[in-house]
Backbone:
C-alpha cells in the first residue's frame, strides 16, 4: 500500500502524541484515587514532575487532534469513513475541553497546593471548592467524550480496509479501558492509563511502516 507523505506524517504525530500522553498518564495524580488535587501537589518532590506531565498531556492531545484528521483522508470513501468523522468530531471537542482544564490545573494547582501546605488554607477545603468549579466539570465532560469517541474511531479503522482490523479493535478496547481508569474503577486504574496512548503510538508506527513498504 502506498501512503502519501501527508498520511505518514499522521503516523509520526500519533507516535509523539501517544508517548507524550503515556508519560502524562504515568505522572498523573490518579493514583491518589481522590479529587484532593491540592494535597497531591503539596509535596515538593512530585510537584514539578506532575506539572510537566500535565503539560505533556496537553501537547499530546493537541498533536492527536491534528493527526487524527489526516487519517480521515486515508479512509475517505471507505465503509468506516462516517464513523471516523463522527468519532473525530466528538474527540476533538472533548480533547479541547480536557486540555484547557488540564492546562489550568498544571498552572494553578501547584500554587494552591503550596498554600495548603503552608497552612494558609486546609487542603481539604481547597479540594472541596475545586470540585465545584467549572474547570474540573469541563475536564470530566471532556475526558468522557475524549475516550468514548475513540470507540467509533476504532470501529472505523477496523472496517476501513485501509489498516489491519486488529488495530481498530485494539484502539477501541484500550480507549474503553482508559475511560474506566478515568472513572477511577480500581482494576483498570492500576494499569489502563498508559495503555490507550501507547496503542495510539503503535498505530502510528504501523502507519509509518506501511509508508516505508509502499515507498
Residues:
Amino acid at each position: 500500500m502506498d501512503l502519501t507523505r501527508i498520511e505518514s506524517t499522521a503516523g509520526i504525530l500519533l507516535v509523539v502524541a501517544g508517548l507524550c500522553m503515556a508519560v502524562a498518564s504515568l505522572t498523573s495524580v490518579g493514583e491518589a484515587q481522590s479529587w484532593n488535587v491540592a494535597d497531591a501537589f503539596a509535596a515538593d518532590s512530585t510537584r514539578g514532575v506532575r506539572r510537566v506531565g500535565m503539560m505533556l498531556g496537553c501537547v499530546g492531545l493537541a498533536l492527536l487532534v491534528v493527526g487524527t484528521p489526516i487519517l480521515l483522508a486515508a479512509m475517505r470513501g471507505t465503509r468506516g469513513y462516517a464513523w471516523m468523522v463522527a468519532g473525530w468530531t466528538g474527540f476533538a471537542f472533548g480533547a479541547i475541553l480536557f486540555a484547557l482544564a488540564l492546562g489550568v490545573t498544571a498552572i494553578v494547582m501547584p500554587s494552591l497546593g503550596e498554600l495548603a501546605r503552608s497552612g494558609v488554607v486546609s487542603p481539604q477545603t481547597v479540594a472541596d471548592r475545586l470540585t465545584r468549579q467549572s474547570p474540573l466539570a469541563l475536564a470530566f465532560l471532556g475526558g468522557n467524550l475524549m475516550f468514548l469517541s475513540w470507540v467509533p474511531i476504532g470501529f472505523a479503522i477496523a472496517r476501513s480496509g485501509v489498516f489491519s482490523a486488529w488495530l481498530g479493535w485494539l484502539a477501541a478496547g484500550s480507549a474503553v479501558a482508559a475511560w474506566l481508569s478515568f472513572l477511577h474503577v480500581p482494576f483498570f486504574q492500576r494499569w489502563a492509563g498508559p495503555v490507550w496512548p501507547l496503542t495510539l503510538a503503535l498505530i502510528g508506527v504501523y502507519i509509518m511502516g506501511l509508508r516505508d513498504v509502499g515507498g
Notes: The two ends are 9 Å apart (CA to CA).
